[in-house]
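Researcher: Please predict.
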Amino acid sequence: MKVPTATYRIQFRNGMTFDRAAALVPYLKRLGISHLYASPIFTATTGSTHGYDVTDANEIDPAIGGRAGFERMVRALKAGGLGLILDIVPNHMAASLENPWWRDVVENGENSRYARHFDIDWSRRLTLPFLGDTFEKVLEAGEISIRLDPKTGRPALAYYETLYPLTPSSYAGCGTAVLATTDKAAIARLHDQQPYRLMSWRDMPRELSYRRFFEIAGLVGVRVEDGSVFDDTHHLILELVHGGMVDGLRIDHVDGLADPKGYLERLRHETGPDCYIIVEKILGEGEHIPADWPVSGTTGYEFIAAVSNVLIDAGKLDTLRETYHQVVGHPVNMEAELRAAKLMMVDNNFAGEVATLLKLAMQIQQVEDRESALAEASVRSALRELLVAFPIYRTYGTREGLPTEDRRVLGKVLDTVRNGPNAPPLHALAFLERILIGDVEQSVAGRASVFRTRFQQLTGPLMAKSMEDTLFYRHHMLLALNEVGGEPLPRASSLGRFHGAMETKLEREPDALSGTSTHDTKRGEDARARLYTLSEAPELWAEAAARWHEMNRALISALDDGPAPEPPVEWMLYQALAGVWPATFDPGNLEDLKALEERFAAYVGKALREAKLRTNWGDSNEAYEKAVIGYARGLLSPGNQTFRADFSDTLRPFIHAGLVNSLTQTIIKLTAPGVPDIYQGCEGLDFSLVDPDNRREPDFETLQTWLSESEMRPSTNEEWQSGRLKQHVTAVLLRLRQEAPTLFRKGEYLPLEAVGKRADNIVAFARADAEDALIVIAPRLVFSAFHTASPQFGADRWAETEVSLPEKLAHRRYRDICAGKTMHFGEQVALSRVFADYPFALLLAE
């Protein structure tokens, strides 16, 4: 297996095609990338902006160049010596009539060849939740009719421009007479004869008959655990791997599969041992992927949380928390808030999935004879508490029950539930435990297996939607912590935690990715790096937020349900604006100001709906949304110059300290254990907001121009603020990774201790093997140094600060790979010496 030395993620669509990606190969090669990491390339719904809504898993999307364009890109990659990793989507496909398999299922129901390809409950009609109201109401309103489908020549139920095919038996012998049907009762009878039932999107949470991806009805679960379904959905993927065009696969949402381990074992068998395989998997605190999965590791969300330990000022976090609680008006109990979010999901958003589990449990209970009959209410209460208490995405039980490690996890969860303040009837909880571990009567073992699978496929979406897509938008103490792979729950941050995480990664997943930005992160890596600095100056930030509140008081609307924005949302708006504010920005440039306003307003609208407090996606509060988005626009309106001037001046030291954080974060990613993943454009600066903002195409022309300069420039103010310094450091380290791959893949990870006056402002470690050694020294927590007009600070600031070297690193000569200087060190490295040219040191042993 050829393990990448560094990957570069490209988002296809939105203007990015195979030919355009091929043109970037010389740039990626100069940057030091070993593998292009491509977003999904298979045919997706018309106009798809991401490609995860696949309509044909065995066709390369013509919209981005088709098979011919793909092969041209592959030839360009091979000519440049680069490999290719594909993002594939085994868990779901588009529930769209553009999907020929889904269309066949809609038309023919359970008789379709593809009826078992999708995860559908065939004990009832297939539900299609795409109407604006109930079928009866839209029919009465005249919104449903019978029309001829011009593509097939056959009659269909027409709802506006969507034509749902009629099953042939429902109009056989009627010829074209069925088209003359205008009688609403006749249309209703015809609808009743279909294998599907059109219904309101509002009824989806309770009545959906198929497994969806999270809450998205337009994405239907695929039963890839079935061998024939695996074959049908992986034909082209395997052809590309076996043909040498694809070197690796990234598995999207592996936790959605019925049997992740079984799927990965089949995939490994089919691809062979040389294919690099990673999985998208969000890990909880202290969690690891199962050791017996035949993969190289995860896509690296957990790396973001690990790096936050370096860049968060843990000693001042409580001050920031107390200030935020004053803004909210009361102390915030995050554990209670998470429980409330999960209960909302269990009782509303995923009510149908929970009802299915309850139905299965009661069917099993009828056969069990170990105890008296359990009341359905008791079982529901136990199921609800078990789902809410689950601390990780899922366990990995199979038909045989739960693996040993997962039994341990379940045991802890059960203890938490039993001893908690909301403990359900214990006999009902014990009953569910037996189902999950497989201790049931043989006659119901099959149903218990289905329950176990469904339970495991539900806990992940519950966690994701409760944490990432609700709680992260409700509580805003420090937005940088509200990131995929992290938790906004109180925890201690420390360098020790970071070093421990890196030592564990080297031991368990040395070939896994390390990411700092992805297409799914809540904000760009440099926005996050800047917002970390708020933890270093909580009083200053709180004073500024209070001042801005007074400046913009006239923008606040008084609504019947309260002020808009309310104080916590206002606090969020200032943080989000601070994160997206360009490093070099003239707030007097009206064109740039308007562009920023549009991006910011779009983010605010999404953030309000995701919070699900005063508005949401299913029941929007237009007055509230208009008021808050109006406030956000008002912050950036040309007439609000006083605020913008104050905001810009206040932000300056945060910007400068954030640029240092950005560089430290980058250096760590490129030298610590794991394979560094560069998200498109993030070799420069990326201050984007959540998607779709973070999927905008970067300025590749400028990036290529910068990199054409062969030498690193001096550490000037412009180099920092433009992102050029970050790009050049990235290129230097990526090239080193190619020259010494064993050092970074297998070399020891050695935490180094800083001593002296500014010891707390340094993170240091080394990578070492029998041949090479690299000492990495980078700054942290430097906000107090930057009440100046520059992100630079002289070497004299680092006087009386050293990094101690262990015996294997001491008394050797080292070359600073950025400054080009060679130095000899004894048992310590003096920072005032190595920080003379750049405020970091990358020292390679000679």
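Model: The mean pLDDT is 95.
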